[in-house]
Write a structure and sequence with these properties.
The protein is α+β, with helices and mostly antiparallel strands. The chain is 35% helix and 23% strand. The chain folds into 7 domains: 2-130, Rossmann fold; 140-187 and 471-576, Topoisomerase I, domain 2; 191-255 and 394-463, Topoisomerase I, domain 3, CATH 2.70.20; 262-390, Topoisomerase I, domain 4 (Orthogonal Bundle), CATH 1.10.290; 592-710, no CATH class; 714-771, no CATH class; 781-835, no CATH class. It has 24 helices and 35 strands. Strands 9, 10, 11, 12, 15, 16 and 17 form a 7-stranded antiparallel beta sheet that branches. Helix 5 (132-159) runs antiparallel to helix 16 (533-547) and helix 6 crosses helix 15 (514-526). The longest helix has 28 residues, at 132-159.
Length: 852
């Protein structure tokens, strides 16, 4: 008997069919071991020894694998064909060795780039050993990430309360987003004018010519900077005569784009399909694992984590056959196109992402695919086909025109004519930002000496614009250009930045939160080397050299750790005042924006001689007055001066005593913004609290309004059918009504205090109808990917909110805000649920069994 180990259960089922009854195929469900999230998991003093722990859920699977291996002749490790896949095979092998399961079994490692019968059988016929260099590269990467995270994060927590974590790649990626935001804030828009002559050729065809020089002086974009200058030129051109000085036409070729890598697939799926990075990779995973076609599961694309752009010769040959048969020999180059990656640190051991069967046209795939899978497959298929097609041929024409008025003006008209569409017949790459396509302009026939007639002269005002914020696609592209991260890390890195609330995604643009900007300012001030782009890229190069067998992995770690640990020790002695001074300086323009009246933006609006400064409190950072405690003015970062509050000691403003309880009602500022509190904490019992929503000003909120908020949730009445009470309240996602664990949104905060029973019953009924009563009927909120549990989501179920990985559902504990659950908490809940015995399956004890 032969035992085969793959990663996913879907893949295991498919491969078992390919191999037949002499093989048992088991799924590892991703990684089976990991470093515990605690100090000491990597020990630099003991040669970087790593203490791995087996996941509780994986333990049962490993026991089953070990039992099967003990009675087998051969163990075949067939995990994914990348570093992570190599590491998973190594982990499984190490666990089996400790269990004494291997005995005399032959150990082989096989890799296949596609889940098709031919690819799998070919891989089985060509086994190899585990690649020790790839495993070493994985160990070095894992140790580095652990050491940076678990050494740097505690420093952040002590010096910058509210910060959650830092990471080797995560922090540099965050710096890219923050640097772009700083560019946008520092940008000062400039006015400029364009002058366009609307002309008509002798044949009556209209065309445009742009002003490029005045009296022999060349113009750049900002040369005409005001209306007066622009209108003076316009008026002079209105009386000028125009003559064509020269016409130059030259052929231009546009070559096709290479086939997809992980990065370019994510970028193009974002531009053309509107997919997030995570959505793209989840859909690609399904296409890779395959669907049932004619009773047999077949993978539709090759492995989707790659930075190689080359394809197998047999695949290129098949593509060329399809091009010739569908489009004719005119669209087929004389020889195959060979691509090489331009990305920094590219590892080209794997093929580009392509269809496994190029003869399977997207139209034929409609029978077995729908929704996201079909759209992404079509994108991959057309890009792959176009990559081997003939270049597009154009004729680009430039006409230089002289206008004689009071001055001599130079104008230029350009245009292109598509002579042969080539690959453009099938595919054109999307664009991040809208813009004019010069290839779409066309000039009428012009000749030297022609005198086109003036129809109109347009002078149009414009303003320079700041660089755009990053999208997920453009950030991934920039990370790839700089050599930061790898195909398997892009999606996870972006997700961590959002989970940590360092960035938010608004209209597909990444916007840094104040928390994220403070973290980066701290790191740039005190750990500058470790968030430099070149340093991070250089470290990636060292890791790549490990995988190539050129460098010893422990040598790389020793060199890094010697410098890094010494630097951290020096920073530990920093006083918080030094941190504040540095952040005040670095983030001055953001923390204290210029005022309209021109006064000092750091002067306190509440007292005569106070200066505003960044303050760091128990729950995070805020702006406060230097005259504290005499002046107790504070505001949240990002608030205007008017939105600040004159709070009491420790950010507290007393509103008065509650007539029902006699307890003091106070307005406070905390980690998540302003809130109300009834009384003080006594022992372990927490006082009643309520968020001060944006509908109220924390500096002026009155006692009556505060009591209304503190008395929420408000009971509206009893449901007419089951008598269960219905409440109205305000949660992290806004105002709501609820019955039990069924929540429905309200339109505004004031509605919480006015909504009636009939309206509430209708809203709850509509919510139940949308949910369809099924636990998995509604799409949930993606929390991220976990190495063992896969994609994890937060969902609203019939019996309340829960987290799930598609196999195990874990209910959110009563009293916990669902919106506060992050990936780490979700993993803990799912892990605990998976480890606990299922209800209803516990065996009943009997007298007989007790005696035994």
């Amino acid at each position: 008997m032969n035992v085969v180990i793959v990663e996913s259960p879907a893949k295991a089922k498919t491969i078992n069919k390919y191999l037949g009854g002499d093989y048992q195929v088991f799924a590892s469900y991703g990684h089976v071991r990991d470093l515990p999230a605690k100090d000491g998991s990597v020990d630099p003093e003991s040669g970087f020894e790593m203490k791995w722990t087996v996941d509780q859920k994986a333990q049962k699977r490993l026991n089953e694998i070990a039992t099967a291996v003990k009675s087998s002749d051969r163990l075949i490790l067939a995990t994914d064909p990348d570093r992570e896949g190599e590491a998973i095979s190594w982990h499984v092998l190490e666990v089996l060795k400790k269990k004494g399961a291997l005995k005399s079994a032959e150990i082989q490692r096989v890799v296949f780039n596609a889940i098709t019968k031919s690819a799998v059988l070919d891989a089985m016929a060509n086994p190899r050993e585990i690649d020790a260099d790839l495993v070493d590269a994985y160990l070095a990467r894992r140790a580095l990430d652990y050491l940076v995270g678990f050494t740097l994060s505690p420093v952040l927590w002590r010096k910058l309360p509210g910060a959650r974590s830092a990471g080797r790649v995560q922090s540099v990626s965050l710096r890219l987003v923050c640097d772009r935001e700083a560019e946008i804030e520092a940008f000062r828009s400039q006015e400029y004018w364009n002058v366009i002559a609307k002309l008509e050729a002798s044949g009556g065809e209209a065309f445009d010519a742009r002003l490029v020089s005045v009296a022999g002086d060349k113009l750049d974009r900002l040369s005409i900077g005001d209306e007066t200058s622009a209108f003076a030129i316009r008026d002079d051109l209105n009386g000028a005569s125009f003559t064509v000085d020269s016409v130059e036409s030259k052929p231009v070729k546009r070559n096709p784009y290479p086939p997809f890598t992980t990065s370019t697939l994510q970028q193009e799926a974002s531009r053309k399909l509107g997919f997030s990075s995570a959505r793209t990779m989840q859909t690609a995973q399904k296409l890779y694992e395959g669907v049932s076609i004619d009773g047999e599961t077949q993978g539709l694309i090759t492995y989707m984590r790659t930075d190689g752009v080359q394809m197998a010769p047999e695949a290129i040959s098949a593509i060329r056959d399809v091009i010739a048969s569908r489009h004719g020999d005119r669209y087929l180059p004389n020889s195959p196109r060979i691509y090489k990656s331009k990305a920094k640190n590219a590892q080209e051991a794997h093929e580009a992402i392509r269809p496994t069967e190029v003869s399977r046209h997207p139209d034929a795939a409609r029978k077995v695919l729908d929704g996201d899978m079909l759209r992404l497959y079509e994108l991959i298929w057309t890009r792959t086909m176009a990559s081997q097609m003939q270049a597009a041929e154009m004729e680009r024409t430039t006409a230089e025109i002289t206008a004689k008025g009071e001055k001599i003006y130079g104008l230029r008209a350009t245009g292109s004519v598509l002579r042969f569409d080539g690959f453009l017949k099938l595919y054109q790459e999307g664009r991040d930002d809208a813009g004019d396509d010069e290839d779409s302009n066309r000039l009428p026939p012009l000749a030297t000496g022609d005198t086109p007639q003036r129809k109109d002269i347009e002078a149009t005002q414009h303003f320079t614009e700041p660089p755009p914020r990053y999208t997920e696609a453009s950030l991934i592209k920039r990370m790839e250009e700089l050599g930061i991260g790898r195909p398997s890390t892009y999606t996870a890195t972006l997700q961590v930045l959002q989970d940590r609330e360092y960035v938010t995604l608004d209209k597909k643009r990444l916007i840094p939160e104040d928390k994220g900007r403070l973290v980066i300012a701290f790191l740039e001030s005190f750990f500058e080397k470790y968030v430099q782009y070149d340093f991070t890229a250089g470290l990636e190069e060292q890791l790549d050299k490990i995988s190539d067998g050129k460098v010893n992995w422990k040598s790389v770690l020793e060199q890094f750790w010697k410098d890094f640990s010494g630097h951290v020790e020096g920073i530990r002695e920093l006083r918080v005042a030094q941190v504040i001074d540095s952040l005040n300086e670095m983030l001055g323009a953001h923390l204290f924006p210029a005022r309209e009246d021109g006064t000092d933006p750091r002067s306190c609006p509440n007292c005569d001689n106070g200066q505003l400064s960044l303050k760091i409190g128990k729950f995070g950072s805020f702006i406060g007055c230097s005259n504290y405690p005499d002046c107790r003015y504070t505001r949240q970062i990002g608030q205007s001066d008017a939105e600040g509050a004159q709070l009491g000691e420790d950010g507290i403003r007393e509103l008065g005593e509650d007539p029902d309880t006699g307890l003091m009602v106070t307005a406070r500022t905390g980690r998540f913004g302003p809130f109300l509190q009834l009384g003080e904490q006594e022992g372990k019992e927490k006082p009643k609290r309520a968020t001060i929503t944006k509908d109220y000003d924390p500096a002026t909120i009155e006692m009556e309004q505060a009591l209304e908020l503190l008395r929420l949730p408000r009971e509206i009445g009893k449901h007419p059918e089951d008598g269960e009470p219905i409440f109205a309240g305000i949660g992290r996602y806004g105002p709501f009504v609820n019955k039990g664990r069924i929540y429905a949104n309200l339109e505004s905060v004031p509605e919480v205090f006015s909504v009636g029973l009939n309206r509430a019953v209708t809203l709850i009924a509509e919510k139940e109808a949308k949910r369809g009563g099924g636990r998995n009927s509604q799409p949930g909120k993606a929390l991220g990917e976990h190495t063992d549990f896969g994609a994890i989501e937060l969902k609203a179920g019939r019996y309340g909110p829960y987290v799930t990985n598609g196999k195990v559902n874990a209910t959110i504990p009563r009293g916990t805000e669902p919106e506060s659950i992050d990936l780490e908490q979700a993993v803990a809940l799912i892990s605990a649920k998976a480890a606990s015995p299922s209800k209803g399956k516990k065996k009943k004890s009997t007298k007989r069994s007790t005696k035994k």
